[in-house]
Amino acid sequence: MQLAVTESKKQNLERVVSAIERSEACDLLVFPEYCMGYPSRGLSRQYLEDLAEPLNGEFVNKVAELSEKNQIGIVLPIFERSNGDIFNTAAIIDQGRIRGGYRKIHLFDAFGYRESDLFRAGSNPVLFRLRDLTLGIVICYDIRFPELVKDEVMSGARVVIVPSAWFRGPLKEEQWQTLLTARAHENTSYVIGVGNAHEAFVGRSIAVDPQGVKIMDLGAGDRMGFCRIDNARVTEAREKLPVLRQSKPPSLHCQIL
């Protein structure tokens, strides 16, 4: 669900609800990072303080009701308030049940932006089961850290979901596409990047198959796209290209000559 979010949390919740109600029959809907809102002047601590909610707050609970009604899974990024901190969190909902959330581990402190001034970093990778699949999840800047994605895949993920608000800028779209494709191919896994379509971001929701082939690209704008995840293609890719079995343990040390 490539939404162009606004500054208004209320309006964004209405857009999320409308998107769910308009969606095709499917198993999982994924919304972009900063789904609660993004003002034209950029995020501020005060803005986040005003919008943030617990994982079981009104924003998530309303979406959970629709998840139960439609019997679907939903990944919904929120500004999560917990014990006085605010996390950049992707809530994981399945058929009405809030399963938990993934808190973004690598905060975007790059290109002059300091997400760590706004959020507290998470510390734990997260996997979740949906039907017969195990899925991993990372958020936006996390995709630049291949060891995190590799850890999730080695722990059982066959699909990695990447909700994002990928900022516009020189070559940023190329970087986004390259990183998603590389993470899919090097891990013989599906990688699904879901972009925020606000004017500050590139949109460009992209799905890549386990061979590193792009199977969906939504381009720019407020759009909805669907793709089929074929578990057998993951198995086939891993048989043909057994890089996961051949991977060396991360404890290897470089020898200095």
Could you name the key traits of this structure?
257 residues; alpha/beta; Nitrilase/N-carbamoyl-D-aminoacid amidohydrolase; 6-stranded mixed beta sheet; 4-stranded mixed beta sheet; 28% helix
Description:
This protein has 7 helices and 12 strands. The chain has helices at residues 9-22, 45-51, 58-70, 146-154, 172-187, 231-240, 243-246, and strands at 28-30, 73-82, 85-94, 97-103, 109-110, 113-114, 126-130, 133-137, 159-164, 190-195, 206-208, 214-217. The termini are far apart. The strands form 3 sheets. A 6-stranded mixed β-sheet has the order 7-8-9-10-11-12, with helices on one face. It has a 4-stranded mixed β-sheet with strand order 1-2-3-4. Helix 1 (9-22) runs parallel beside helix 3. With 257 residues, it is α/β, with parallel strands linked by helices. It is globular, with a radius of gyration of 18 Å. The longest helix is centred in the last third of the chain and has 16 residues, at 172-187. The protein has a single domain (9-246), classed as Carbon-nitrogen hydrolase (Nitrilase/N-carbamoyl-D-aminoacid amidohydrolase, 4-Layer Sandwich), CATH 3.60.110.
Question: Could you outline the blueprint of secondary structure elements for this entry?
Answer:
Layout: H1 9-22, E1 28-30, H2 45-51, H3 58-70, E2 73-82, E3 85-94, E4 97-103, E5 109-110, E6 113-114, E7 126-130, E8 133-137, H4 146-154, E9 159-164, H5 172-187, E10 190-195, E11 206-208, E12 214-217, H6 231-240, H7 243-246
Parallel strand pairs: 1-2, 8-9, 9-10
Antiparallel strand pairs: 2-3, 3-4, 5-6, 7-8, 10-11, 11-12
Helix pairs in contact: 1-3
